[in-house]
Design brief:
With 98 residues, the protein is mainly α. It has one domain. 62% of the residues lie in helices and 0% in strands. The chain contains 6 helices and no strands. It has helices at 4-11, 28-38, 41-51, 53-64, 73-86, 92-96. Helix 2 (28-38) crosses helix 4, helix 3 (41-51) packs across helix 4 and helix 4 (53-64) packs across helix 5. The chain starts with a helix and ends with a helix.
């Protein structure tokens, strides 16, 4: 179940998930994916403010390491660089080789 702040965030941004009617049924993962793919910079900063840099980075890294990715290539590349620089958790490739 979504937190109230995350529900408020996504319900105020219907343009991110225009194909969904029940916003409470969404997962954190789907909201992060939609925000990074379709949101503007203010949307990205707001979701990071709600969920935290580490949580958003963890979700993103998990999603891009799946065989089927829903991120556009330029989005995946940009946020890989962004989270590698600004998130303090270890990158996936570093953690697996430690």
């Amino acid at each position: 179940m979504l937190s109230d702040s995350l529900y408020d965030f996504i319900s105020e941004r219907k343009y991110l998930i225009w194909y969904v009617k029940d916003y409470r049924a969404l997962s954190e993962e789907s909201i992060v994916e939609a925000t990074l793919n379709y949101g503007n910079w203010d949307d990205v900063q707001k979701i990071i403010g709600i969920m935290g840099m580490e949580r958003v980075a963890t979700i993103f890294r998990k999603q891009i390491n799946r065989p089927r990715k829903n991120y556009r290539p330029e989005v995946s590349h940009y946020f890989s660089l962004y989270f590698n620089k600004y998130a303090t958790t270890r990158r996936y490739d570093e953690a697996s080789h430690a």
